[in-house]
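Hi all, long-time lurker, first post. I run a small reading group and we've been trying to get comfortable going from sequence to structure in the token notation. Rather than ask abstract questions, I figured I'd post a concrete chain and ask someone more experienced to write out its structure so we can walk through it together at our next meeting. Sequence below, copied exactly:
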Amino acid sequence: MWLYVSGGFLSIVAHRDQPMHLLVRARHPGHIEALLPGLAVTVMPEADYQFRLVAHRTVVQRALARYVTQMDYDNFKDSIEDEPYHEVCLDVWRSMWAYGRREGGL
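-- Answer (accepted) --
Happy to help. Here is the structure in token form:
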């Protein structure tokens, strides 16, 4: 799953060898910390997603529930403080807007 939250972009997938765990991956060092603070992040410089964390599914579930419960913004793009990340999210927004126009027949 790709997850865009105010604090960053994450790729979360099932762990290949540990069925009760998830692999949380990011391309920016602070993005995992924004959702899962205080957990040890592994750095793999040659990997597609350089920053990684293995966490029990319930840890990730609780973090996502906390994020949703504490959400107070009414515009996702305006909730992003990191300007370069904001620009990336605008690019994603534009791409999905164009996709919706094409696929929706508008």
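A couple of things your group might point at:
The helical segments are 29-35, 57-70, 83-104.
The longest helix spans residues 83-104.
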